[in-house]
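Sat 14:20. Reprocessing the chain from the morning session after the first attempt stalled halfway. Input below, unchanged.
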Amino acid sequence: MTTHIDTFQHYFFVGIAGTGMSAIAQYLCGTGKKVSGSDRLFDKNQKMLIQEQFEKMGIDCFYQDASGISSDVDVVVVSTAIEESNIEYKKAIQNNIPILKRSELLAEISKSKRTIAIGGTSGKSTTTSMIFHILQHAQISPSLMTGAGLTSLQKKGLPGNAFVGQSDWLVIESDESDGSIVNYLPEISIVLNIDRDHKEFDELMALFTTFRTNTYGRFIVNADHPASAQISMDKSFDFGTKSGVGFFGSDFKQIGFEIKFFVNGVPFTVPMIGRHNMENTLAAVAAVSAVGVSVEEAAQAMINYEGIYRRTQLVGRKNNICVIDDFAHNPSEVAAAIKSCQQVGKRVFAWFQPHGFGPLRFMHQELSELVSETLTNEDVFILSDVYYAGGTVDKNISSEIVSEAIVSNKKCAKFIPNRNDLKGYLKANLSDGDVVLLMGARDTTLSEFASEIFESI
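Finished this time. Tokens:
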């Protein structure tokens, strides 16, 4: 089902606390729509932070028991994670209330704006936030919908993953995992990389090729990545470290928690870690240049970039030990996060919680191989039990399959089933100059867990 966003006045979101759903809900509320929603994580007696933030915006929140689907609800919005057996899905059907998929709604919103869409299997949220930050600095005032909270917006008491600006520009994160990336008709598109994640490589290539076809303006790709380079349309706006591309990065250095490099001869200093964040910055510079922002102005903006939630986010430093929280959840992201942390401390204790049984089954071999190649002889890779978000799923696989494979590759790995036992293990093994890297997705308690680990060391 697709329809114009003005067809409905009252939107009800099932699973409104999820990052993708919450961003659209906030955006629609900011444009004057009536918005309400439910989430299984909401507690009737103790409100979550995001629930309090929603209610301050005027978004009514309910426990996921169908009590919020009143007679004045015009449409119910669901994600692909919501099954037809869900009580609210069934009530919408019974009451003849239209049901709209999250991806369909986002596509309709994007059609109403001059959209910059960021795609790729890694780095989407970071690059989206960088583009938004630079355009804000340039006083262009874009709108935003993304998958992770920007620190600059969170400081204002907002969830941070959505914003309603004054201009016609909209910056969105485009998801390939559910195939919804093919629904967008952006003016400017970016493909950061194409790696096997969620889907097989051939299927991903088909999705990103359609993404290119649907872009009516500037299509920008990472020329350093062989797969994305294959679908390039205009090398004068591509980015990378190879010659012959429009936005060329060079002389990369990481000094502590800061990276320095040049873009087309212009010096950049970005308060982040990791070479992959030079690539993300290059992508952002290419996109804002298509809007009309100079490389020099982009460089000035990035000096004060504050980052996003759980992307190589420093939890704290204690006893000369750093604890870093990261959203990494596919093999390339996990490897990139480890490499970033290797530049910060002498040893990396990298803990990973797989974000689902299906994803682990899909990626465990590639994860084992890539982590084995990335770890030094001093580093340790630790896994705990798979995160289970509910629903019908085959649980016949364990994280231990990865730790065993890494050990067979002569690198150090541990399987600690109960993640609460990680505190004792780290306390017994950490020493001066070490880095603790905590990785995982979907589980909303991971940030709290990172803080607990920091307090325990």
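Residues 357-374 form the longest helix (18 residues).
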